[in-house]
């Protein structure tokens, strides 16, 4: 079974630490073993079987109606569709967490059992799967065999390359059932859905108690308390607490701007900067104030605006009933009552 345990932060095609991916075709075979062939009647003839010489036909592909993917086996398509429907039929008996694939549940169970049978010969790190160990070993060798044909970026894993390619295509096949947001990657959708459910499944920060929806965010946050900055730029020596921040910083030296606007051709260092820029063409304002309904193109202005509703007006005018959020505004207002002219009067010209 091909299982990828994510060693690095997730950034536009890089997998998150701790998340597990199981290939659909192999997961289908796994389910067949576990369920004693429950899916056999719904699948086509296994690819290993040779058809009758007289009836040989081209293999039929089963296409997903939600995205561009297709599969040789119907069972694989059914498993894939769970990414779109949100179905999670497999539940952990220890903690109740649910999964779309049986193989993923089995790997998750090792969190409770602590089984990690595979060990790195370089650093001693242990992994729960052989494929995870092989992927980890590329950190030591520096091997990145998978190359993007659009921009030349290389990746340690084929799945990372496929995820990255959506940066160029702009496809967003994963849709939220609670709102109209769409995402390029399923992990983005899962993280987004937690904004609706309020779920924060990862442990709280031991220093300040803040909780996070994603494990890698918690680990990066904890470095703010420890001051640890393990990622260092080889060109200028600057250090960062996140690998992603280092990768973005390197573009200052290389001049790389991999994200291009299809409307005007302008290029950007960050994909989120491109997303924000595109709204100048579309007029989209996806952020809405819950208090007054005002709309904004970016989240920072939206958050600042919402604070205007929540911040109390602490500064009360001693002459009337008006109050203000800022002391400077109060002093400016009081001049109405005192008739004070702070900049003096202009001299008379004879």
Automatic annotation (TrEMBL):
Pfam families, A to Z: zf-C2H2 (PF00096), zf-C2H2_6 (PF13912)
SUPFAM superfamilies for the chain: beta-beta-alpha zinc fingers
InterPro entries: Zinc_finger, Znf_C2H2_sf, Znf_C2H2_type
Biased composition (Basic and acidic residues): 331-342
Bias-annotated ranges (Acidic residues): 24-36
Region ranges (Disordered): 16-62, 331-350
Domain C2H2-type: 62-89, 90-117, 118-145, 146-173, 174-201, 203-230, 231-258, 259-286, 287-314, 315-342
Superkingdom: Eukaryota
Protein name: Zinc finger protein 239-like
Designated gene of the protein: LOC123725384
């Amino acid at each position: 079974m091909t299982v990828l345990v994510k060693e690095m932060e997730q950034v536009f095609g890089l997998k998150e630490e701790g998340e597990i991916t199981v290939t659909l075709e192999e997961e289908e075979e796994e389910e067949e073993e576990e369920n004693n062939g429950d899916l056999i009647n719904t699948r086509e003839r296994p690819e290993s079987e040779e058809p009758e010489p007289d009836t040989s036909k081209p293999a039929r592909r089963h296409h997903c109606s939600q995205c561009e993917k297709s599969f040789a086996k119907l069972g694989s398509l059914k498993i894939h569709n769970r990414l779109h429907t949100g179905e999670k039929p497999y539940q952990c008996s220890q903690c109740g967490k649910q999964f779309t694939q049986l193989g993923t549940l089995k790997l998750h169970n090792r969190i409770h059992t602590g089984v990690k049978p595979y060990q790195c010969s370089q650093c001693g790190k242990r992994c729960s799967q052989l494929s995870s160990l092989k992927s980890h070993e590329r950190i030591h060798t520096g091997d990145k065999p998978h190359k993007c044909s659009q921009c030349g970026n290389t990746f340690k894993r084929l799945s990372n390359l496929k995820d990255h390619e959506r940066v160029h295509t702009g496809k967003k096949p994963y849709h939220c059932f609670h709102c109209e947001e769409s995402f390029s990657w399923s992990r983005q959708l899962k993280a987004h859905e937690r904004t609706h459910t309020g779920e924060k499944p990862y442990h709280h920060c031991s220093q300040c108690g803040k909780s996070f929806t994603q494990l890698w965010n918690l680990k990066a946050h904890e470095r703010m308390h420890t001051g640890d900055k393990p990622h260092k730029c080889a060109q200028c020596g600057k250090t960062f607490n996140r690998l992603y921040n280092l990768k973005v910083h390197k573009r200052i030296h290389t001049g790389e701007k991999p994200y291009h606007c299809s409307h005007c051709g302008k290029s950007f260092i960050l994909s989120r900067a491109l997303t924000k820029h595109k709204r100048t063409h579309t007029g989209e304002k996806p952020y809405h104030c819950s208090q007054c309904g005002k709309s904004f193109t970016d989240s920072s202005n939206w958050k600042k605006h919402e604070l205007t509703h929540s911040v109390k007006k602490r500064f009360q005018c001693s002459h009337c009933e008006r109050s203000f959020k800022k002391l400077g505004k109060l002093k400016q207002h009081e001049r109405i009552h005192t008739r004070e002219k702070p900049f003096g009067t202009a001299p008379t010209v004879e």
